[in-house]
């Protein structure tokens, strides 16, 4: 893909996510269903944090596109590749997969019907559906250098634990689980659910690495090889 199309793609994706985040942030002051934004506002929801993650990545990618000449070894480009490979792709895909799996089983466990009054269907799809094709589009737009797998998984694990502690803290503080589903688990069940989710995220990280290699195998041979 030409550099011009790549720049347009990154700027468009960044603008889209900025628009969605702005719309969600504006809801914070409205009268929402009980418990939706209590304690921590939207910052306790993985969906919202993922939108910020996607917006940050595409913003960084758009800035990186402005660098003159070949910049594959620049610090900015390495940070962009790290953000996409370790966080943006696996976390974004995880949000889509987990949300729609639980939604199909019982939407009240993850996205109660009362929310539809405040968040129209298009916002729901913006948060939980369109993330997937945008990420796959990024895979096709340009190659990404992946870090050593053990380092990537360690970083993912640390972030996952931090989010687990955050949602437990919210529950201990106000007595409300971020997602109704979590209230159905015992303590061992909650830990098991967490480790299951981290296993899925790990597989999605490996999937991203595989897709990157399949699409850009010739180009990757020309880039600096890193041990896995």
Describe the structure.
By secondary structure, this protein is mostly helical. Helix content is 68%, strand content 0%. α2 (46-65) runs antiparallel to α3.
Low-confidence stretches: none
SSE arrangement, N to C:
HHHHHHHH
Mean pLDDT: 89
Assign an overall shape.
globular
Strand content: under 5%
End-to-end distance: 27 Å
Outline the biggest β-sheet: none
Helix content: 55-70%
Indicate the structural class.
mainly alpha
In total, how many beta strands? 0
Radius of gyration, CA atoms, in whole angstroms: 18 Å
How would you sum up this structure in a few lines?
The chain is mainly alpha-helical.
Structure characteristics:
mainly alpha; globular; 228 residues
Set down the secondary structure blueprint.
Elements lengths: L2 H24 L19 H20 L9 H32 L14 H8 L2 H11 L7 H26 L12 H29 L1 H6 L6
Helix pairs in contact: 1-2, 2-3, 3-7, 6-7
């Amino acid at each position: 893909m030409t550099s011009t199309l790549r720049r347009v793609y990154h700027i468009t994706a960044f603008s889209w996510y900025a628009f969605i985040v702005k719309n969600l942030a504006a809801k914070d002051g409205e009268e929402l269903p009980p418990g939706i934004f209590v304690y921590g506002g939207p910052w306790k929801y993985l969906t919202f944090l993922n939108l910020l993650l996607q917006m940050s990545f595409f913003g960084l990618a758009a800035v990186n596109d402005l660098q003159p000449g070949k910049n594959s070894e620049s610090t900015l480009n390495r940070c962009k590749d790290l953000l996409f490979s370790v966080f943006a792709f696996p976390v974004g895909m995880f949000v889509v997969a987990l949300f729609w799996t639980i939604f199909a089983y019982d939407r009240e466990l993850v996205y109660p019907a009362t929310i539809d009054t405040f968040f129209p269907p298009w916002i729901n799809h913006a948060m939980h559906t369109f993330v997937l094709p945008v990420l796959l589009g990024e895979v096709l737009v340009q190659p990404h250098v992946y870090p050593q797998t053990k380092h990537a998984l360690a970083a993912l694990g640390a972030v996952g634990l931090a989010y687990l502690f955050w949602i437990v803290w919210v529950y201990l503080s106000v007595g409300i689980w971020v997602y109704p589903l979590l209230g159905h688990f015992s303590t061992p069940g909650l830990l098991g659910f967490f480790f299951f989710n981290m296993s899925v995220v790990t597989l999605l990280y490996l999937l991203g690495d595989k897709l990157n290699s399949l699409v850009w195998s010739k180009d990757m041979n020309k880039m600096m090889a890193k041990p896995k």
